[in-house]
Write a structure and sequence with these properties.
With about 450 residues, the chain is α/β, with parallel strands linked by helices. It has helices at about 30-35, 50-65, 75-80, 115-130, 150-160, 180-190, 200-210, 220-230, 250-260, 285-300, 320-325, 370-380, 385-390, 405-410, 415-420, 430-450, and strands spanning about 10, 15-20, 25-30, 35-40, 45-50, 85-90, 135-140, 165-175, 190-195, 235-240, 265-270, 305, 335, 340-345, 355-360. The protein folds into 3 domains: about 10-70, no CATH class; about 85-310, TIM Barrel (Alpha-Beta Barrel), CATH 3.20.20.70; about 385-453, no CATH class.
Length: about 450
Amino acid sequence: MNGKGEIHKYELGGDYFIVDPASGCVHIADESAFHAQLTVDNGQLTVNGCSDECEREFRELFEAGLLFSQDDCEQYAETSVEAPLKALCLHVSHDCNLKCKYCFADSVVQEKSIMSVETAKAAIDFMVENSGDRVDLEADFFGGEPLMAWDTVVATVEYARSIEHKNFRFTMTTNGLLLDDEKIAYINKEMSNCVLSLDGRKSVNDRIRPTKSGAGSFDLVIDRFKQLYHSRAGECYVRGTFTAYNLDFAEDVIELARLGFRNISIEPVTCYNDADYAIKPEHLPQIFENYERLYELIRDGQLDVNFFHFNVDLSGGPCVIRRLRGCGCGNDYMAVSPDGKFYPCHRFVGDERWNMGESPVLWDTPFCERGHGIKEYFTKTHIYSKSGCSGKSAEGGKTGSACWARFYCSGGCNASSYECFGDCRVTDSDSVECLMMKKRLECGIGLNALKSL
């Protein structure tokens, strides 16, 4: 128990929640308890505005360290060390048969290219050699469109499966244009997860995901996507992107569910320019309304979907270091370009300032020192080194309150911070991206708390 912790209170669809960020406890309250005034001074809790029974329950939670609990995790962040490699994002193709307006690759990929089998094998060898005693390794086939490099995909899987002392989990993200019966059967056999890129309603998808000729892509892929999705025993997600064009993205989730897809992810576009599809601060009220609408539809059993952004594990969640550092960007996870260059993640590919080295002799190139330096940098990039998360400046001085969501989002996307602020360790809890993150976290926390009743 201490007097330095904080709580986060919010109402959603007539439900009331009180979150204790440091302990991870979520309390479902009635309206009276929610509106009670709670303050802590010198380690003492003061409760006003509720019944004696309600006050007693608040005091019991406080004494048990489940309310206003102290954040004592910084000690673990300070001792975090470099981790063995466990996952690679293989950009097997820097070519695509669609021309999506929001594609992040367009800004960094200047040449169309396909990863050779030799480069892919060298990347797998590097991961194995630098995986330590990890047995389970992951590789994601990405692009561009990975089906355009099908021979490389098949040869890479075959090669990795031949390495007896490691177990490989493969995933793939595809736009579906090149899917056929043979590829669907292979994906179902070899890929642990498959992500199908589709933005929802036909009108929305075709506006922003045209073919190179300018025609819509929805009708070209929907039947194959249904075939693949419904024939799979393993994981499969339909992954869309919402932009300023479809701020009513709840309708896209509803449409995807009507089409028979249950595992759905609709991500906000990441765009720091003046594109007409970019999400702006004035769009937030409508975005929040749509998250809340999805919350209520799922809560009330009117929409049976597994909505990716509402998946929040309240029973235990990831280990402390994962909560503080988030993804393994540049540390236990890297991305590889078609020409064998390594980068911290897929969002950095093509930016030579983040080139960590080249295969097959990654650390023996002129980038050796830089590669190790980048890995060390991301090892120490966590919620206590990010200004908007910790409420501290880069020099350690206090600049404001710590963000309540920091243990759930783990500081957000490092690449987004770099693109927006020019520094992976700068965040702004009042930015558009952070505000959207906090809204969907509120929805996910609420849904999962109610499920536990």
